[in-house]
Amino acid sequence: MEHIAIYPGSFDPVTNGHLDLIHRGLKIFDRVIVAILKNPQKKFLFSIDERMEMLRASLNGLPLVEIDAFDGLLVDYASQRGASAVLRGLRALSDFEYEFQLALMNRRLNREIQTVFLMTGMRWIYTSSSIIKEAAQFGGDVKGMVPSVVHERLIAKFPRSAKRR
Ligand code: PNS
User: Fold this and answer.
1) Which atom of ligand 1 is nearest to the CA of 86?
2) If you average pLDDT over residues 98-126, what whole number do you get?
3) Which protein residue's CA is at the shortest distance from atom 10 of ligand 1?
4) How far is the C-alpha of 59 from the C-alpha of 66, rounded, in Å?
């Protein structure tokens, strides 16, 4: 039986921490489906197409990884896709409360789907899409924290950051 994990998130934008987690997930699961949240009520910096394109370019045809988008309940999407697990990354303590809540709610909604937490690499323990966007917005150099395609897109969104390259 094939073990499939869904790796869900906003990926607004994908960071090197996300890529690190996908590679770790592939050591455990046969396939990983990266599922981008579409939710039109949530305000994203990048459109769903941009977030997909950036993920595609960053993963560069990595086998056994699929990129998809979803809306509605994550557990419903996971069972439609035949996945047995939801993969989430844990950084520092601050992630724990929200992740704990999300995992327990998902378990209540569908007991067949297990949440699997993996620690991100130490290099990425303090980074997040939000802090990276904030730094880029005010001209901070985020090179090395995001794939090069994302770096270029952030510079295009916030031209001030180009000055400090
Ligand atoms: O990267 P993020 O933004 O922390 O990801 C959050 C995500 C997409 C995993 C979460 O918001 C989600 O699963 N949304 C879909 C709706 C859902 O099923 N929510 C959890 C149970 S109410």
Assistant:
1) 9
2) 97
3) 9
4) 10
